[in-house]
Amino acid sequence: MSDQFLERMDSELAGWTDPVQRLRGAIENDEFELYCQPILKFAGEERYPMAEVLVRLREEERALLPPGEFLPVFEHYRMMAQLDRWVVRHTIKRLAGGSRVARFTVNLSGQALEDEEFPRFVAAQLTSHQVAADKLLFEIDESDALLRLGACKRFSDAYRALGGTLLIDGFGHRAVSFVPVKELGVKFVKVDGSICRKILTSDSARNKLQAILRVGQALGFALVAECVEDQDVLTRLKAMGVAYAQGFGIYQPHQIDALAQV
Predict the structure, then answer these.
(1) Is the domain 3-257 a CATH 1.10.10.10 member?
(2) Which residues, 6+ apart, have CB-to-CB distance to 107 below 8 Å?
């Protein structure tokens, strides 16, 4: 464990005398708020057909904590699956209550993927709230898709049987591999921001994106460009044939009820 990680943990745990109890209490007492960031579709009548769900933790003195300040603590204490359950449960409740956003995407942690009970939990929540699986799209990070392919496939097979699908996030951040895309039968690939941000200035980035687009057309998955902050980048992405885009230059994150409530 690196000194840098320990220093970061010390900072994040400041004031938490019992971190595990603090995390459990946050889950049991619903001390989180859901935000979401809409995802733009370049073509079609529905401009924002889906939105990524983001979670914030309420702290009395520090208001809302962004995920970068508390997710590492959940990961360190092996409690990410519990947090993922909270997010999934409340996102499905939002869908069941009616939503102007047709579909939400939820990030799934590696710890949840390794939890063999998690697919049954998701199925039970969808059934009890009478929400169709295609309204909830799970995002799996590229690193998990590569390193935990067996666990990812187990979840994918179970969720696809319900009528749902997956998205691979951060695609192309490492060496591009389409093995997880084929194995998991994903319908969406979110191209890493390190590629999208450079398409105006880097031949390598443009060539990589064009190659992913060609394979997407062959395999039948759509591309989502992430971390889009510039209008010129957005224009180029559309010209290249990218189907979706997301980023602060398109839509800032908002409380989920502010955007989704009917």
Answers:
(1) no
(2) 52, 53, 138, 139, 141, 169
